[in-house]
Every structure is written in structure tokens, then in C-alpha cells.
Predict the 3D structure of the following.
Amino acid sequence: MIKNSSIESIGGMEFATFKLKDGVTEAELIELSNQVEVEFLSQQKELVLHFLVRGTEGIYADVAMASSQEKAEEYCLQWLSNKVALEYLELIDKESVSMTFWTRIN
């Protein structure tokens, strides 16, 4: 988990739900998530929070909160050009992904 700054600095977020590909373990997901945070997300100055959560029926959510929705979207696009982030994405069943972006309103 990444926690930078205070919760008051959150202006937007990315919320992506997904399932893992067959044969991929939760331990593998967590290991690569930790690598993504150390090698990539920790470099993003306006990223306030990043974490994973698990729901029911094998559904996970990757949550990133930033200073604005625009920053959350920008950081999301950068995943596609980062080696370790691409490795993380390879664990995910692409058909199961639902990604949305949000702006804080109060």
C-alpha cells in the first residue's frame, strides 16, 4: 500500500475491478503489486493512496487515489509503458476488467 500526504489532498481516483487469470494466485498478485508500488507508483508525486482489496467470488479491486481525476487517469495510462506494471497486468483476466475514474465532490 502507498500512502502519501493526507486524505484531504485526494481529488480523484481510479477504481478497477478484475479477476485473476486461471492458475494465478493471490500471492502472485500481491507480490507484483508490491513491486509496482516500489518500482513505479512511488515515483508518482501526486499519487496519494494505492491499495488492493478482495471482494467475493474471486473479484479484486485496484484503487489509486490522486490529487485529481486527471492525474489518476494519467498514472493509469503510464502503466502501459512500465515493465513491472505490464507484468502485473498479465495476471489479470482482461475480459473481467471494469475500470472507472472518479472526481471527489465534497
User: Anything to note?
Assistant: The chain is about 30% helix and 30% strand. The longest strand covers residues 47-54.
